[in-house]
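help with this.
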Amino acid sequence: MVLKASHLKIYNFKINRTKVMQKLEAIRQQIDKLDLKLLEIIAKRSTEIDKINKIKQAERQEAFDPNREQEILNRLHKHNKSLYNSAEIGSIYKAIFKASIMLQHRLREKVEN
């Protein structure tokens, strides 16, 4: 059987595509591991939020502290060494802040009921 050049191109494409898919899968597995680590850190963060919430509640302070949020954002922007720019890091953390405030409200409702 004689292979034509077109057959070789298709064969090489399939081999290259397989290698690419294997590389992607390996990288995705690394991302999956990082996601689990992030989830673990978020869980630890939520425990600290609970502690802060109890103090704030005892002192009759609001859950939302805009000065604290800005202080965190400023520190993160200063130390950001990732490929994400400051606006993108800000978006990620604003989502975390929002979830933290929602958590504090939910915890307060739990205590009140």
